[in-house]
Amino acid sequence: MTYGAIRGVLNTLDDPYTGFLEPDRAAMSREDRSGEFEGIGAYVTMNEGLLEIANTFKGQPAEQAGLRRGDIVLKVDDTPIENMSIYEAITLIRGPAGTPVRLTILREGEEPFEVEVVRARIEVPVVEPEMREDGVAYVRMNDFSSDASAKLADAIRPMLDQNPKGLILDLRGNPGGLLNEAILTAGLFLPKDDLVVIERMKDGTEQLFQNPLEPLAPDIPMVVLVDAGSASASEIVAGALQDHQRSVLIGEKTFGKGSVQAPIELSNGGELRVTVARWFTPNDRAIHGEGLEPDVAVELTQEDFDAERDPQLDRAVEYLLSGQ
Known about the structure:
Blueprint: H1 2-11, E1 19-21, H2 23-30, E2 36-39, E3 42-47, E4 50-56, H3 61-64, E5 72-76, E6 79-80, H4 86-93, E7 100-106, E8 113-118, E9 120-123, E10 127-131, E11 136-141, H5 148-160, E12 166-170, H6 179-187, E13 195-201, E14 206-210, E15 222-226, H7 233-243, E16 248-251, E17 259-265, E18 271-280, E19 296-297, H8 302-306, H9 311-322
Parallel strand pairs: 11-12, 12-15, 15-16, 16-19
Antiparallel strand pairs: 1-18, 2-9, 3-4, 4-5, 5-6, 5-7, 7-8, 10-11, 13-14, 13-18, 17-18
């Protein structure tokens, strides 16, 4: 009854990012910050009260079960999750490796259907680098968990030694993570002391976050790939690089999650996540509810995805090799 009362109070705020987690689910959620967890291997976002698959990990249970980017999860087992906080919805899907979870999926153009996914131990590949044969350095960054910026730096250094013609930072489907990791990631490419993000409270007070480091790659021509699954910390990085004209953005409009949640641990191990502020880019552009428009808009359709075509990546390579 107490938990129900807490949820009832929080629901009156009409904020999907303010939520309550019971102790066992709070402990499970804290695993995310380590980059390892037990679940289905998918990134999700909450869009107008609906939980949407933003991306699936290659070779992991969600992909193996046929889940796709853009799928809407209506139920977890027999529990409807519409208008549930994103934290509660995620912790319903998560669970011990080897156990099944039944998801009711809504896919565009189809009737709702059920998919059973067997959970597994997921080790998130934070960065996936590739030195391409065309001389372009490419690195996909999947989240901003602990030490993500250091892992990105370690991936970039050996590629820089090969004098690449340009660098592509792929933030598509990256739902975000830790603010400090976003600041350090942007700092790999921006001059020291450049403004990365503005955090503004409801009363108008604000905190400015600047790059505390000497950059690793301040001059290499650069493209950041974004899409509707690029959210939160991804938008901080992309917005900072775009505002400072350090990189062009190619792809699709980002998700628009620019709110700040303070985690408050309760005496029984439960947790409140309460929205306390909003993020703005260095040029004072609102992220929350707005998203970032790419400099070069390129759509990636489901047909492209199914055929393993990537016109967004192709356009990024073309831009770096041709300069336009």
